[in-house]
Amino acid sequence: MGLRDDIQTAISEEMVDSLADTVEAFTAARVTTSGTLDPATGTYTETTETWAGNWIRDEFSVVEIDTQHIQLTDIKRIILQSGTDWIPETDDTVGNYYVFDVQQDGAKSTWTIQLREAS
Question: What are the residue boundaries of the structural domains of the chain, listed by start?
């Protein structure tokens, strides 16, 4: 077993045990627009993909919040990559929030996402 598998196994176990009160289910969505214009409606065809999974609720520290890149109301979540097929991208949506930033750890086992409330 490699480092990635070890990390994912450890996090999975912790999500059931000591982190259980911070684990939340999510449903993410991505809307894509086709390049084909429907002349009858004057619109492009939109397709919505959805993904589900669980994430660990986290917060940005006071030091990280700079009100420019990370705002006071931004939300931080950690997603175990083996627990979902979703590869988060900027502007994907989760409820009333959109993905503002995505980071992947060095072992490629987790995503850390920054969510910002949609206005």
Answer: 3-117
